[in-house]
What we know:
Layout: H1 2-32, H2 36-61, H3 69-96, H4 99-105, H5 109-119, H6 130-151, E1 156-157, H7 167-179, H8 182-212, H9 216-238, H10 250-278, H11 280-285, H12 288-301, E2 306-307, H13 308-346, H14 351-363, H15 367-381
Antiparallel strand pairs: 1-2
Helix pairs in contact: 1-4, 1-7, 1-10, 1-12, 2-3, 2-9, 2-10, 3-8, 3-9, 4-12, 4-13, 5-8, 6-8, 6-13, 8-15, 10-15
Amino acid sequence: MGSGNGKVYATVxxxxxIYAGMHILTKAAFNEGTSTTVFVFxxxxxxxxxxxxxxxLEIRKRxxxxxxxxLSVKIFAHGFYxxxxxxxxxCIGLKYASATSSSAxxxxxxxxxxxxxxxxxxxxxxxxxxxxxAKASGILLCVAGVIVLALYQGPQLxxxxxHQLLKxxxxxxxxxxxxxxxxxxxxxIFLMTMSVVIWSLWTVKQGPxxxxxxxxxxxxxxxxxxxxxxxxxxxxxLERDFSRWKLAGPVSLASVLFTGIVVAAxxxxxxxxVIEKKGPVFLSMSMPLSLVFTMAIASFLLGEDVSLGxxxxxxxxxxxxxxxxxxxxxxxxxxxxxxxxxxxxxSGRDNGNVDVEKNAAAVQPAGGEEEEQDHRTLDDAxxxxx
Length: 386
């Protein structure tokens, strides 16, 4: 058991390092001079090309679900707002802000998803209960954290490392921090926050979509292919200088390959595995690790200074995340205990029969529970798309 837990913890650390690498390499690519819209197109194209062979293998193993025109349009729409649109917003925002602030904002993903679930009546928020107050306070803390990130920078805490590995990009990052005004910084935080909100809506809507088209791999591949075409159209409209379609340097190429393959494909399956072992809440609680890794590695590689406002805002965001997760966990435990009590009270059978049925349920979970876990998987596993 200890060895199994060790593998899960090591995988979680690897996932968070992958996300930290995504924030840092993407920021380094923009510092190198790569166009944001062109970068998004190349990233989505690499992800689609990487996933297509696996999709064909999946089709050869078992027939693909029927794909009607109406369903194709729906998947096309999900690819547009959940991938092409939100990633373009995120990249433009990251260009004006920092890798550390980007990683901090990612901590609101589970919180925003919970808010949207409440709006769609998929979750409840009972303010008269302890868990309800915890979730509400967590939401307020996340809002406060984003406001602090956007409006307050404070003194800069200089990087302790004066020999950055990416010296050219380190100087570009320092120049960008000086050049960007407070308004541009606030705009960057706003755009990244909007991208997270839109992407959270996408994760909530993946559950109903999977009921119509149950293959997660084919679903994801189709959305990546559609998002590639959409990202190409966006890039053609916004970047008409074709000299800018060439990647600015080796770091940009590495960033495209890393975000397209490692983030969009490999980490997706790593997250599915962790969720199957420990559940979605466990994975969500590890999200602040990406912030810590990003802050440390960005300082080492890019020489990125961290503002006091970024640290304060990040701490508030993490506190809000844990409040919501704690409230949700407490509510689930109370509901499970209440359900178990009702089953015991209403059952006219002896304890031996009840024990046998409980053991059988533990060995073979109900289909509805498996289906619900499949839906939750995308809530945490689809982050690579952002």
